[in-house]
Amino acid sequence: MKKKKNVLLFVFIIYPYIVGFTPEASDSSSTILKIIVGRGSYADVSRDCEGNPITVVDIPFHEAAIELDHHSGNVRTGVKGGVTNLRDGKIKKDDSYWDAPVFRGSTIYYVSPDIGVHWKYIGINAGLIYFNDYFTPREDLEFDHKIMPRFSLRIGNPYTTYVTAGFMNNVPLISGGGLFDIGVGFYRPYPMREVWVGLGFFPYDSSMLIMKSDIFISQNVMLLPRGMIGLGSDSFEYGLSIGAAIRF
Q1: Which residues pair with 131 in a beta bridge?
Q2: Under a CB-based contact definition with an 8 Å cutoff, are residues 85 and 105 in contact?
Q3: Which sign does the torsion angle of CA 233, 182, 173, 4 carry?
Q4: Which end of the chain has the least Cβ crowding within 10 Å, N or C?
């Protein structure tokens, strides 16, 4: 059991390397492997007409994901896959929880191929994400289809300052930045490749403040810590993910 925990801890530590690595502009062709784990908790809050909370259900979760990207000139192709495990959600009242869960947890698997084109001042990726079952992260947030679109957009030079937005694009889906995120990235000198600050949304109850950083360990390996925290929910919401990126 102890050995298993040590392995999981090691994977958790190297997670950021995998998630945030991108090749240099001079690279004409490269393949990047990413392995990622994450965890966190979000809230499903019911409110009255005046916005006051009636019930607060905390839903903890764990995730793991893998991504493979191939870059050839301006074209990028890739595939992502992962698993998100939602735990049972219980009503929180006076810093304690009711025994009976009101949200039944589930485990969802997904795979997502995509293709994109990237130039100096703009980059676009688009693809589809396939779920093995209907994805219902909250009682009031149920996706009616097992196949959904996925996209990401970058405006600005990735080696100076740029803006990005994405839907269903984070790895893992929830702890990596939420189902939708938008923010600003700043390229930094070696060893810190970039810092990205932005906001994430869904399935979290509140807007989430996100910070991501890519840190070189060697020329072809990066450490990528990510963290996010809620800005105004009636419960503590957070997401943490970490992994490694290796370029071949």
Answers
A1: 110
A2: yes
A3: negative
A4: N
d(CA 193, CA 191): 6
pLDDT digits (tens, 9 = 90+) for 46-83: 888 877 888 888 999 999 999 999 999 999 999 999 99
The encoded tokens of residue 211 equal: 């910070």
Q: What SS3 string covers the chain?
A: CHHHHHHHHHHHHHEHHHHCCCCCCCCCEEEEEEEEEEEEEEEEEEECCCCCEEEEEEEEEEEEEEEEEEEECCEEEEEEEEEEEECCEEEEECCEECCCCCECCEEEEEEEEEEEEECCCEEEEEEEEEECCCCCCECCECCCCCEEEEEEEEEECCCCEEEEEEECCCCCCCCCCCCEEEEEEEECCCCEEEEEEEEEECCCCCCEEEEEEEEEEECCEEECCEEEEECCCCCCCEEEEEEEEEEC
Which residues are 10's β-sheet partners?
A: none
Other CB atoms within 10 Å distance of the CB of residue 56: 20
Residue 172 CB-density burial (10 A; 0-12 exposed, 13-18 middle, 19+ buried): buried
Structure tokens belonging to residue 60: 């903890």
Which tokens belong to 50?
């005046």
Q: Residue 154 is encoded by which pair of tokens?
A: 């970058």
pTM here is 0.82
Query: Hey, what are 15's tokens?
Result: 């997670």
